Automatic annotation (TrEMBL):
<dbReference type="GO" id="GO:0016787">
    <property type="term" value="F:hydrolase activity"/>
</dbReference>
<dbReference type="InterPro" id="IPR006379">
    <property type="entry name" value="HAD-SF_hydro_IIB"/>
</dbReference>
<protein>
    <submittedName>
        <fullName>Cof-type HAD-IIB family hydrolase</fullName>
    </submittedName>
</protein>
<dbReference type="InterPro" id="IPR023214">
    <property type="entry name" value="HAD_sf"/>
</dbReference>
<dbReference type="InterPro" id="IPR036412">
    <property type="entry name" value="HAD-like_sf"/>
</dbReference>
<dbReference type="InterPro" id="IPR000150">
    <property type="entry name" value="Cof"/>
</dbReference>
<dbReference type="Pfam" id="PF08282">
    <property type="entry name" value="Hydrolase_3"/>
</dbReference>
<keyword id="KW-0378">Hydrolase</keyword>
Length: 274
């Protein structure tokens, strides 16, 4: 069955390390769209983060943001779905983890990814590229304010522990009601239970009438693993983490070597009989 939809992660996969879209990659994306394929960014970024590179990549249609929790049309603003971490779930997690690992800080990302409610102290350890936001704009809120409303994405971060180290502590709590992943950024990303990039992609494909076997997906990080395993054809870039490599049947060149473009060029040449 031919490929009808390209699902690609952005940071570490489609984008070069300087966060640029290379001319070769842009040409390959344009050729895929001209051939009638859906080209969908599937990212941990919120829509505002996707918009920062949308013009360079030619993204104007559907995007899956927040690790699959949020399906939104970039041109019309139509929201296909949103999945939130329940307020009581994130409160139980935050209270237990802060007790187990003192110094842990939390952020609630709400209202289509536009509202960012950061706990006091978080902005002090954040950088602009962490969330595609200036730390000075993050605010400083008490934990109760962070926890009072459901989150599209609930951020968990420690000043010294790595995401992998913090993940061990979080899982040791044995709490239910959420999913957790990480994307190569210096924090954990807590989502509604069952949510992943694969979860969101499955819902978008159902909306578009695309079969799982008709999906070609690219990724590099642990948060891409479910999507790479779910897609009819999953491809990890050469710089991918172990979790992504293990989930993907195929490999391509690194993000800095235009690995996504290389695969798309081959796919389009094959489909055109070239």
């Amino acid at each position: 069955m031919p490929i009808r939809l390209i699902a690609t992660d952005l940071d570490g996969t489609l984008l070069r390390s300087d966060l640029s879209v290379s001319p070769r990659t842009r040409a390959a994306l344009d050729a895929a769209r001209a051939a009638g394929l859906h080209v969908v960014p599937v990212t941990a970024r919120q829509p505002r983060g996707v918009r920062r590179i949308a013009e360079a990549a030619g993204f104007t249609q559907w995007a899956l943001c927040g690790n699959g929790a949020h399906g939104v049309h970039l041109s019309t603003g139509e929201v296909l779905f949103e999945a939130h971490v329940a307020a009581d779930v994130q409160r139980a997690l935050a209270v237990a983890l802060a007790e187990r690992v003192p110094g842990t800080l939390f952020v609630s990302v709400r209202e289509g990814g536009e509202v960012f409610v950061a706990q006091t102290g978080y902005a002090d350890i954040a950088h602009v590229e962490d969330h595609k936001r200036e730390p000075a704009e993050m605010g400083a809120h008490g934990l109760d304010a962070v926890l009072e409303q459901p989150s599209l994405k609930f951020i968990v971060r420690h000043p010294r522990l790595t995401p992998r180290e913090l993940l061990v502590e979080l899982r040791a709590l044995g709490l239910p009601g959420f999913a957790v992943t990480h994307s190569g950024a210096p924090f954990l990303e807590v989502l509604a239970e069952g949510v992943s990039k694969a979860w969101g992609l499955e819902r978008l494909c159902a909306h578009l009438g695309v079969q799982r076997s008709e999906v070609l997906a690219f990724g590099d990080a642990p948060n891409d693993a479910e999507m790479l395993a779910w897609a009819g054809r999953g491809v990890a870039v050469a710089n991918a983490d172990t979790e992504a490599r293990d989930a993907a049947p195929e490999r391509t060149l690194s993000n800095d070597e235009d690995g996504v473009a290389a695969v798309l060029e081959g796919l389009l040449a094959q489909s055109s009989g070239g």
